[in-house]
Amino acid sequence: MKLLFIGDIVGRPGRDIVCALVPKLREERGIDFVIANGENAAAGSGINSTLARTLLEHGVDAITLGDHVWDQRGWENEIAALPQVCRPANLAATCPGRSHLLIEKNGFRLLVLTVLGRNFMGPKVDCPFAVADRLFTELAGKFDGALVEIHAEATSEKQAMGWHFNGRATAVLGTHTHVATADAMVLSGQTAFQCDVGMTGPHESVLGREIAPVLARFRDGMPRRFEVATGDVRLSATLVEFNSAGRAERVEWLSLRA
Questions:
Q1: CATH no. for residue 218?
Q2: Which long-range contacts link 214-217 to residues 24+ away (Cβ below 8 Å)?
Q3: CA distances from 45 to 11, 40, 42, 60, 99 (A)
Q4: β-strands 231-242, 101-105: how paired?
Q5: Distance CA 66, CA 246 (A)
Q6: Is 68 a catalytic residue?
Q7: Structural domain that includes position 29
Q8: Domain count of the fold of the chain
Q9: What is the pLDDT of residue 235?
Q10: Which of 68, 100, 178, 203 is catalytic?
Q11: Gap between the Cα atoms of 187 and 46, Å rounded
């Protein structure tokens, strides 16, 4: 079976390339599951129900989120009505939305969950290792494989999560930095791993934003509006091939233009 995980979708350029390429990729590569991080889908910060439904209508099976989960006004009142969307699992239990997803294709049950890292990150969250462990225990027997997304700044924290779930998860894949890492691999326990899948959106940019205002901010420290850029749009994703036992056999990082 095959799982395609799409890195942080940034703004309209990111949404448009997902909608254009995902249906083709599903058909050409025989992909069973498509999961996408959509936390930057709305003008670069957050997501709303209209945009989430658009992505789901174009071949995305499930949408994960990150530290910008609540950036769009009113999203906290919309998320519960979208059964294919989950928030980070280690937010406070009182937060709306699902802590995880269980999706099924051809009799295979895939657990999908995201945890936020705690190093150099803003939100105050519970321990990502403990929360993910708890979900694995509570849901034991209800899934055949698992995708654990670690949305974090520190590569060390992401690597630690990969080794923590080595042999237990089908894949542990990182997001948040918007810059892909060159470490896509299958770990010793047949768990696919990559520190960061990268950004789906405009790569002629600084992390998806227009270059000039970001550069100027670094030079003089004055506040500026960072609009989403438009040049060199690419889809960044990691393709994981795995067997019926949920063990990864091959991993490939993709960087595609429309």
A1: 3.60.21.10
A2: none
A3: 8, 4, 6, 19, 20
A4: unpaired
A5: 25
A6: yes
A7: 2-256
A8: 1
A9: 98
A10: 68
A11: 32
Q: What is the rounded CA–CA span in Å between residue 91 and residue 117?
A: 11
Q: What is the pLDDT of residue 122?
A: 85
For the entire predicted model, the pTM comes to 0.97
Phi and psi at 152, nearest 5°, equal -150, 160
How many CA within 13 A on the CB side of residue 135? Answer: 27
Residue ranges in the chain whose pLDDT is less than 50: none
Q: Which two tokens stand for residue 237?
A: 């994703």
pLDDT at position 204: 98
Per-residue burial over 83-112, b if 16 or more Cβ lie within 10 Å, else e, is ebbbbbbbbeeeeebbbbbebeeeebbbbb
Q: Quote the CA–CA distance of 248 and 242 in Å, as a whole number.
A: 4
Helical packing angle, 128-138 and 155-164, nearest 10° = 30
Q: Is 159 helix (H, G, I), strand (E, B) or coil?
A: helix
